[in-house]
Amino acid sequence: MAHSANVQSIDDLEALRAALVTFGDEAGGALAELEQQINRFLEWLAHDRVQYWRAQIRRASEAVGEARTNYDRKRIMTVGGERPACREEKELLMRAQRRHRLCEEKLEAVRRWIRACEQEVIESQGRINQLADHLAGDLPGAVATLDRMLAALADYAGRSQLSSTSRSRTQLNEGEAAGDGEKSSSGSGADADARV
Predict the structure, then answer these.
(1) Distance between CA 149 and CA 145 in Å, rounded?
(2) Is the distance from CB of 62 to CB of 99 less than 8 angstroms?
(3) 19 within domain boundaries
């Protein structure tokens, strides 16, 4: 069954083709940028944050050791036969221990986030790859199809223009021929009148 196209504007099809090409370029650039941002984030999380919290744990361990030494030193001291209360040193030790626990919790949280983010990236990579495949395969195919359609329409429009131009010329030539025939018949009649 033959299908006919009701094309109202070749310019609109050309605009659609241009929009598809622009979309392909911009979407491809966006996917590349997205991949770079994901990689930068995972790198930051896996290296920068892990190193940061490991360094914080070392510092907190040193602070705990120093606070414990100060607390123990103060506890064994006697002033006037009495042992001091050591409240301040005990508070500093407890604060250092809390900071050490917090740093360990943060490092463990970073490790959990690394695993969760890597899992999310794996899951989303399938959808990203589908879009990339469409951009690499389907979109160029659609643009090529539009190119063929536009070429066929331009060829058809050229033929239509040519046939309408040749129809106009034929009608003009027929009109001139008819006018010449009238002139020659009227001229023949005048000659005949002149001869009589």
Answers:
(1) 6
(2) no
(3) yes
Q: pLDDT tens across 111-170, in order?
A: 999 999 999 999 999 889 998 988 888 999 999 998 998 888 888 877 666 555 555 555
User: Does 42 map to a domain?
Assistant: yes
Total count of domains within the chain: 1
- What token pair was written down for 156? 């058809």
Q: How many CB atoms lie within 10 A of CB 3?
A: 4
Give domain status of residue 88, yes or no. yes
Residues 6+ apart with CB under 8 A from 7: 13, 153
Q: What pTM value is reported for the model?
A: 0.60
Specify the residue for token string 């919790």. 105
What SS3 state is found at 77? coil
The whole domain housing 83 covers: 12-135
Q: Express each pLDDT in 64-81 by its tens digit.
A: 999 999 998 888 877 777
